[in-house]
Structures are given as structure tokens and as C-alpha cells.
Amino acid sequence: MRNHFTLDNLRRALRNPHLIRRELLRLGSLPFNHGYGYYLDRTLDESIDMMAQDWDNLLILDACRADYFEAQHEFDETPTRVVSPGKMSWEFMQETFVGREFHDTIYITTNPFATRLPEDTFFKIEYLLDEWDDDIGTIHPQDVVEATVAAHEEYPNKRLLVHFMQPHRPYLGPTAETLRERVDLVGYRNQGDGLQIWGAVKEKKVTVEEVRTAYSESLDIALDEVETLLERVGGKSVITADHGEMLGERVFPFTSRVWGHSEGFSTPPLREVPWLVIDGESRREVREASSTESEERPDEDEVEKRLAALGYAE
């Protein structure tokens, strides 16, 4: 979780005493929130092993909530809900990938945490970090589609595990652009003179409704690209998420609003993710390789910058 107690945040709090009250409420809420998360982790259904399911293409929408997906997708099929093994990306990857080998699968990913995976986990990992948009602080879903199609053309007998960054913030779409212009949003961490979006909400420069609209628009953009991808690659596909997202809900009526997924406790919007199966017109003849193809890993300093831009600084 990002450290709240920085000099920049102290300056902001001194200029706006409302932030001090908000932080005291947040700290006072933590025991209740963590207690609820502890209870929830022990009462949820068993989490799904996504890699053991039957698919040719597994499309992961980062931080995609099941309820938003259900309301916005336009596929003919009906999604169900499954329990993710993690409430943030690295926890999901540890539980799903680490200690296992998937030499029949190519992992095309926008998530910098993938650089922590052992080299022989997949037949090949394509990190896509060179496609990073420095102005916004993310990787666009169109770039993911093009990289996936290219991988499929080069390796037609491999399963494709495709990890989109959206709807994870920083958001895409008209509302997000308006907010960036109005508030000088930078990524979703405080950098320079910019303000991350959760801080903007706490300072009342952005409303809860605006954040939820920006999230929804970002999901729409990602879903449009998912449809494009499914038109270009065949096989049986599943659309899901690594975890969900909190968008200002309260765990209890008297506790603080919760944003994102870095507080370290579970909630249903974080752990329950969509699971939509699209059979496709044909199946892929998947072949497991006896060896893997190495992909040059991104520079560690560059990876840390990307994680910081996505809000995962230590």
C-alpha cells in the first residue's frame, strides 16, 4: 500500500483541515474493515483456478468489478461470478501462476508485476511495457489487441493469456480527460504538481460520481477492444478479472469510504469477478512446448516507475 504520510500530503492537510478529519476516520475504520475482510476470506466460496479451466484465450480485465461488467457487456452469453484468489494483481499472480509451469501458454501482459514471475512459468511472456503512455500512465487496450494478434499468428498452437490494464486507473475516456484537464491528475500517484484521483476526491475536487463514470467509460473502451480481439483470434474464450475495485463504498455505514484495492483487506467487490465463457466457432489445437522462449525483461528501475504510476509504490 502507498505511504500516506508524506511531506506533500502533510502540506495538503495543513492547507485543508478536512483532509485531517478524513485521515483520522480512515485510520479509525481500519480495524473494522480488516476484521470484516478476515471474516469474508473465511466464508467465501473456494477461489477459482483459472489456469485449470477449459479455454484457448483467457482475457483478464484488470480491476474489473463483476457488477459493472454485468451491466455494461454486450455479449450474447450470460456471465457468472467466481471468487478470485487475490484482491490485488501480485497476490492474484502468486496464487495462480507461481510454482507452476504453463508451457502451452503465452502471457501478453500490461501489468508490471508480471516481471516478478519465474522465467519458466510460461512458454513466453510479452510485457508490452514499451507501449507505455507517459502522458496518462497506462497501456492502451488497442496495443494489447495488436500484440495478441501478432503472438497468435506467430504461435497458432498456444493458449493466449491476455492481461489488459483497463478498467484499472488511470482511466480512459471523456470524463477522465475532463478530470485530467480540470484537476491536473497525474497517473494515480502524487507526482510533481499533479494529484492522484483518490486525493482529488478527498479534496472535493472530483466527486464520487465522476470517478465511477470515468471507471465505467474506461471499462466500455476495454470491452470494445475485447470484442475486436475476439473477432481476430479464434477458439474458446473466457473474459474475467484478476480482482475487482472499490469505488468509494463503505464497508460499514460509520466507516470511511474505500478506494481502489491497496488497503489489504477483502470485500465482495474485490474478490468476486466476472466469468464469461464464449465458445467460439472452433477450438485451437494447443501444443505444449518442451522448452520456453526467453523474453528480455524490462529494466528494474523502469518497472518500479510503472508500478509507482499505477499506485503500487512501497
Describe the structure.
- The chain has 314 residues and is of the alpha/beta class.
- 38% of the residues lie in helices and 15% in strands.
- The chain is built from ten helices and nine strands.
- It is globular.
- Residues 188-192 have low confidence and may be disordered.
Per-chain topology:
Elements: H1 7-15, H2 17-43, E1 57-61, H3 66-72, E2 80-83, H4 89-96, E3 102-109, E4 122-126, H5 141-154, E5 159-164, H6 174-183, H7 197-202, H8 208-232, E6 237-240, E7 246-250, E8 257-260, H9 268-271, E9 272-278, H10 300-309
Helix pairs in contact: 1-2, 5-8, 6-8
Q: Per the principal axes of the C-alpha atoms, what is the gross shape?
A: globular
Low-confidence stretches: 188-192
- The order of strands across the largest sheet is 2-9-6-1-5-3-4
Mean pLDDT: 88
Task: Give a count of the beta strands, DSSP E runs of length 2 or more.
Answer: 9
Main pleated sheet: 7 strands, mixed
Number of helices: 10
Radius of gyration: 19 Å
Proportion of helical residues: 25-40%
Backbone structural class: alpha/beta
Q: What is the first-to-last residue Cα distance?
A: 6 Å
User: Secondary-structure element order, as H and E?
Assistant: HHEHEHEEHEHHHEEEHEH
Q: Estimate what percentage of residues fall within beta strands.
A: 15-25%
